[in-house]
Hints:
Blueprint: E1 16-20, E2 23-29, E3 34-36, E4 42-44, E5 48-52, E6 58-62, E7 71-75, E8 83-84, E9 93-98, E10 104-110, E11 118-125, E12 129-132, H1 141-146, E13 153-157, E14 163-175, E15 182-194, E16 201-205, E17 214-217, E18 220-223, E19 233-238, E20 244-250, E21 256-262, E22 265-268, E23 277-278, E24 284-286, E25 292-298, E26 304-309, E27 315-320, E28 326-329, E29 335-336, E30 342-343, E31 352-356, E32 362-370, E33 375-383, E34 402-406, E35 409-413, E36 418-422, E37 428-433, E38 437-439, E39 447-454, E40 457-464
Parallel strand pairs: 17-22
Antiparallel strand pairs: 1-2, 2-33, 3-4, 5-6, 6-7, 7-8, 9-10, 10-11, 11-12, 13-14, 14-15, 15-16, 17-18, 19-20, 20-21, 21-22, 23-24, 25-26, 26-27, 27-28, 29-30, 31-32, 32-33, 34-35, 35-38, 36-37, 36-39, 39-40
Amino acid sequence: MKKILLFSAMMVASMATYAQSSKNYTKYDFSETYWSDSYGDEYPAIGVFYHVSSNGRYAAGCDDLVDTGICFYWDAQDADNLHFINDGVETRYSLRDVTDGGMFVGSFEMAEEGEMGYCYPGIYTPDGKWTALPLPETASEYYGTENIYNINEARAVSNDGKYIAGHIYLTRGYKDSPWGLLERSVHAPILWTLNETSGEYEITMLDEIYKNSLRYDNGDLKEIPDSVNLSTFMVYDISDDGSIICGMNEAGCGGSNPVVIKNGQLIQIFDCGEEAAYDEDGNPTHAVNFNGGQCTSVDADNNVYGYYQTENLQMLNFIFTPDNELIYIDEFASCGSNTGDRFGLNMGLPLQPLCCSHDGNVVAGGVVIDLGFGQTESPALMADKEFVVGISRVTPETAKVDIDVKGNTLIVEGRYDAATIVDASGKIMAKGGQGATFDLDRLPKGVYMVSVATKGNIKTFKFTR
């Protein structure tokens, strides 16, 4: 029997308890939990928890980095144990999200023994049963059979199971090549809605949203003259009412744009740029941004969390509110609770959080482990009856207004009505509304004042260019 040796010091599940103020929580670290394949070889639990159910009862996860096909879930009623769904079978599975009642969504392979099968987006229940979700007629046969499991996948589900969001490859035709006919395909978002009369899920294709898209532009939503490029779309979360889907859309240049689909319309929050622009002297006026970002989660109040890294490597962390306001925050928040608690990567937690329950009682993600020949991640979470510690109380309603200069960009953090930059003589140099960014390269060297108007108040800040 072969066993992968772990050379880093790793903690046994549920052995460590942490506290902040009067609240206690327990860290459940599953890096020393092993899965055995059909040959009897043992592997550590590789992967992370991607989602927690809204009520905190379940957490769902899998490995999509090392590509072991290992999938697992956690049940609060059996908190010390990690439940694997593979059962020794080497096939392609993924678990991405779970409802309050324990209905999981992800993908699974249907194959004859010894052959590659088709990977279907599907529903999994703890009794071991998979149910395939319906696919449109244009679903790609090639990409569903020949590629890894997360190509066609159900990625997020509402807490009642009525709405499921995911992405699949669609065939757009074929083209000639020296190697024969090649499939022309796009990777598109899809929504499944439960018909409560028939009990069946019905498909809503979302690729048409690209013909009527909006772009966030200094506080306003503006129509995009040309349809947004559709080549690769990744879904990350869905709101419980099914009205918001968040994720990432690949720009024409290859960078990633954070986007939300709200009530059937795509809103592109940042733009990586399709191509570089130059002035008459040949100097670049706009650089293509291959960094980009994504919208990662939707909380109980329909706030969307995300990040965007500019071409100058400046990180912009934000919350996109139900009122279409863009609010910058000082640290990246991967999820938030309905009590205003925020959880993120740089908040001193003993794990890397990716998701949390609506009340913040469970925060889940992963920890880094060393396999001896490289590092990867293993599932871990924290649970408490009242709250989970490591809270960042950055909320759109109560956040302190401040300014932050990131390289050549100035942003205003918090909620406000308008911001104005004036020079030493009082001349207005720039102004914008909630969520605007200010390009400081356009300003001459000198001292400037930023006047920020909030509800019934004006705050002034000074900075030097």
